[in-house]
Each structure stands twice: as C-alpha cells, then as structure tokens.
Amino acid sequence: ASVYEDLWATINKGNVWSGEFVNRRKDGQLYWEKANIVKIYNKASNTTQYVGIKLDITERKSQEHHDNSYNRALELLSSGAPLKDILDAIIFSVEEKNPGRIVCSVLLVDKEKKCLTLGSAPSLPGFYKNAIHNVKIADGVASFGTAAYTGKRVIADDISVHPHWSLYKGLALYAGLRSCWSEPIIGQNKEILGVLSVYHRKVYVPTEEEIFSIEKSAQLIAIAIERYHAIDMLRRSEEHYRQLAHYDSLTSLANGLTFAEQMEQAILLSKQTGRKIALMFLDLDKFKQINDSFGHAVGDLLLKEAAARMRGAVRDSDTVYRRSGDEFIILLQGIKEIDNTLYVADKIHNALNKPFEINGKKLDISCSIGIALYPEHGSDSLTLAINADSAMYQAKAMGRSQTQIYHNMNDH
C-alpha cells in the first residue's frame, strides 16, 4: 500500500514517479515491473491522462532473489548458524517469489538413507509438518518419497487424484495444498541429500521458468547442506584434537596441560575470595606389581575405574587430573579449613581401598596422598606442585594408604 500511496502523491504533484512493484497480468499471474509514470493534462479535451513506460523485470528480480538468498545462506553458514536457520532463509526467499501462492519444505535424507526427516518448512502448518517427518523413502510415497527414491523430479499437478498421494492427500488438502512439485537435492558426488518440495494452493503445472527456479534453489540448498556438514566435521575435528590436547584418552580426566591452565585461574579466584586452595598429588600404591602380574590391559581397566571412583569422591567444583601413569592430581577450591581437605582425602582412601573386580579378578590397591595449601605452602602454581609432590613422597615413606600435608623438612 505504501508504494501506491507514494506513486499517487508523486504524480498528482506533476512529478515523474519511478519505481518497482509487483503487478498482475490479465491472466492473474504476478510479475515484477519497473515503471516511470507521469500525469499529462490535455487542454483541448480538459482531461487528465497518464503516460507510463514500463519494463518487465521479473527475470532480473528472480536473479536478485537467488543472489540475495545465496549470500544470506553463506552468511549464516560462515557464522556457524544451525542448518535449519540456513534452510529457512532459502525457503523464505523461494516463497517470496510467489507470495501467498506457494509454500515449501525441505526434507533431509537420514543417516541410514531409509527415511526423510524434516529440515525446514516454516510456512506449513504443524500437523502437516509432523506427518511428513520420518517419511519412508520409497517409490509411490507422495512426491517427496518418490523423488528421493528415484533421484528424479516428481510433479503432482493435482494431489487429489495423483496415485502417489493416496496416503497423504487428506492431510495435504486439509492444509490447503493442491499440487506438489518435488525436486531431489543432489550433492557434488551425485548423492541424494534430500528433497525440496514446492506446494501450490491450486491445481497447477509449473512453467519451464518455474522449474528452472526450483532447480536453482535445490542446487543452493545442496551447497548449504554440504558446506554445513563440512564445517560441522571441521568443528568436530577441532573439538577432538582439543580433547586430545587437554584430556587423558584412557580415563577421560583432564591432563597436566589443563591443570596448568586451571591452576592459574584458581589462584586468581582465591585472591578475590580469600579462600584457600588445596592441591593433592596422589599415587596408587603397588600398581606396578598389578601391571607386571596381570598385564597392561588389566592395569588400564584398573586406572579407569580408579579415576571414576576419585571423581565420585570429590565435589563437582573440584577437578581430578591424570598426571602420568598411576599418578593423579586433585584440585580443591574454596577450602575454608584444612580439615575439609583431610575429609576429602579420607573419602578418596575409602573409595580406592574397596576391592576392584577387573576381568573376573579381585584386585586390591591403595593410594598415597600429598597435600599443599595455597597460600601457606606456595604463592604460585609451580611451588605448590613441587611441595604437593614432596608431601606425596613423604606419605609413601610412611607406608600404604597414607595422607601427608606438606611441611618443610628444614623446619625440624
């Protein structure tokens, strides 16, 4: 409405109006036109007439729509947006070419390549979206299931009588959908990735121009899906390598690199809150004998179970790290009293002193724990680590299943 208000206001002032708008042909088809219109007063007949020079720019607009949707999809891709948002952007651009007349859906081939799952259908009613989610890929299953099965375009110009639509026509007609054209979405290696379906609200056969437009949209969706999958794989790969760099592959505990980073953060937090940090160094007693007697496979299973028990013995805010071999580090934050730390050490001893059932064998281990406290036993992470390690060896010297808080041997 605002376009026409501006048009009449401009030409009634005697000025030339220039602009672009959607017009309707005599056959009812919508098209884009660029127009220059001016009012002319005819003195001889005392009448007002209008002269307009008009140009059909539908093809140009169609290309602009495609370019804009392509660029918008690439923007969303590069920003790491969810695939649904990318597909929605493309679907909206397709629907905008024929506002109110068509609605679209994208169904994606699942991992087993047996079903189509809902990828995007922003303008379809909920009940219909539920009906076309997890549809079997097979010949004769509506337009979309058949297109995914054959890899070829399927045009049902009248859903009410088309044989492929016998199971779905009731729902489609209730949703106000009368025809459906399904275009397979094909990747670079000729793999079928999904199906783009364009629904018309009346019985309708698409023109060559419309088919070309649908093909272009399907190609754009294929690019979006493949690039999204490539970015997702890269993201998973980065996460995998980050996991390898920061976590122990056997026990899934954080490793020494992670400990070094988190220890610095813990010291900064301790300075702000005024609460202590307790650093525990822990070594499993007589683990080497078990490894030598029963083999590394049993030893590895024992380490995994021991790590799980340690995690279960500490608070969620505390962190267990695997240092190397059978040595572990436990970082306790927000400690009020030394007794809190000794209580946690007792919990760990109790957890590890219970027998381990590994491959039908009953194994017994214990641990030696050395503790250093911040700020009493060091003002930096390296000093604390050295002193906690020293306390652990003091504990080992006392016998099995002992805890020792660091004290300087020179103090005696």
What would you note in describing this structure?
This protein has 412 residues and is of the alpha+beta class. Helices cover 45% and strands 27% of the residues. It has twelve helices and 16 strands. It has helices at residues 2-12, 58-78, 83-97, 126-132, 142-150, 169-174, 208-246, 256-273, 287-294, 296-313, 338-353, 381-397, and strands at 17-24, 30-42, 47-56, 102-109, 115-120, 135-136, 154-156, 179-186, 192-200, 276-285, 319-324, 327-335, 356-358, 361-363, 366-374, 403-405. The strands form four sheets. It has a six-stranded antiparallel beta sheet with strand order 6-5-4-9-8-7, with helices on both faces. Strands 11-12-10-15-16 form a five-stranded mixed beta sheet, with helices on both faces. A three-stranded antiparallel beta sheet has the order 1-2-3, sandwiched between helices. Strand 13 and strand 14 form a beta hairpin. Helix 2 runs antiparallel to helix 3, helix 3 (83-97) runs antiparallel to helix 7 and helix 10 (296-313) runs antiparallel to helix 11 (338-353). The longest helix is centred in the middle third of the chain and has 39 residues, at 208-246. It starts with a helix and ends in a 7-residue tail after the last strand. The relative contact order is 0.07. The model has no long low-confidence stretch (mean pLDDT 88).
What is the spatial order of strands in the main beta sheet?
A: 6-5-4-9-8-7
- Taken in chain order, the helices and strands follow as HEEEHHEEHEHEHEEHHEHHEEHEEEHE
Portion of residues in beta strands equals: 25-35%
What is the number of beta strands? 16
Count of alpha/pi helices: 12
**Main β-sheet description:** 6 strands, antiparallel
In one word, what is the shape?
Answer: elongated
Radius of gyration: 36 Å
Report mean pLDDT, rounded to a whole number: 88
Q: Report how far apart the termini are.
A: 93 Å
Portion of residues in helices?
40-55%
Computed structural class: alpha+beta
